[in-house]
Amino acid sequence: MNFIEMDDPDIWTAISAEQARQQDGLEMIASENFTSPAVMQAVGSVLTNKYAEGYPGHRYYGGCEFVDKVEEIARNRAAALFGAEHVNVQPHSGSQANSAVYLTAIQPGDTVLAFDLSHGGHLTHGMKLNSSGILYRFVHYGVRRDNHLLDFDQVAKLAREHKPKLIVAGASAYPREIQHSRFAEIAREVGAKLMVDMAHYAGLVAAGIHDNPVPVADFVTSTTHKTLRGPRGGIAMCRAENSKSLDRSVFPGTQGGPLMHVIAGKAVAFGEALRPEFKLYAMKVVDNARALASALASGGVKLVSGGTDNHLMLVDVTPLGIGGKLAEEVLDQCGITCNKNMIPYDERKPMDPSGIRLGTPALTTRGMGTDEMSSIATWILRVLKSPQSRSTIDATKREVCELAEQYPVPAAKLEAVER
Ligand code: DSN
Questions:
Q1: Model confidence over 381-391: pLDDT tens digits?
Q2: Which residue, 46, 140, 243, 245, is most buried by CB atoms nearer than 10 A?
Q3: Known catalytic residue: 51?
């Protein structure tokens, strides 16, 4: 029985339409994924009814004995997954996790060195309209113009010149593995703390196929819903010596009551990521990204840094005579969802940049492999080369639907139970 359908047809209509969109299309937004039915059930559970301000064993509300267990399991699993001394699983999002670390590690007005948003950074890494950029003095490093790789000479130079209290590593649109130890060396040299925001590639770290920042960073933050494939949310990790101040910065510093249903979903997802199958999944995500990138590059577009070694790629579509805005729009019309994206040193504007960002985590969760990536690359190139052709868009949409039909999204299992 479906209670939303009975009680609230308007919302049910929108949810059903979104479910059909997810099933019928190809989700290639690099930061999105499909959680398992178990994670979805945890998030939809009775735990949403419980207030639990505080931490396990030290709550401001009665009746917390069961949610305490949930939070302890979530903390222990995340600690095992990343080898962390301390994990706070309460941040409602990656942005909240980052705010909590800033509150722990620095004072308003302090200088922070972080990755430039227009080169692949994140808005909570000092964008001027974000609270990070309003409260702290951010200085930004970028990638080299010649190869689009992180410019560690520039990081070191800016660190020596500005003496930041905190260096932030991690990115939202950088297609290469990040060498965290190089950031740690620079941070040590100038007496800065190091925070790594591994939101995008946390799943690859959990699987042991990308460099783990936990051993070398003072603080590590992440979202839980990207490559990690959990519910929408965040975590923050640190060494034991900083655990009390980090916990205080999450609650009461930046948040009130934790979302215990989401924390249960995180626990379930961490449990899934600890299983051997997750490593295979993460390896396939990267294999698929490499296959897609190489097929696209041989079809006439340029890839930032020439390729990828993670779950995403930045595609410069301007060699095809179009911009990122039109590319996103026509692909969307075919059922291929992605986002327009600035490329480093972009001369175009953010609302119509030179690139699009494509990722493989969601398609890999559906079970697609390198053969499917090769077909998808052919369709993307075909459409981007004839963006005004209605017949090309219609034909591609049909092929996208046929492929999507063969790979049900995990939520289809839940729907089958509810019907
Ligand atoms: N907005 C996310 C992304 O798409 O990368 C980062 O938080």
A1: 999 999 999 99
A2: 140
A3: yes
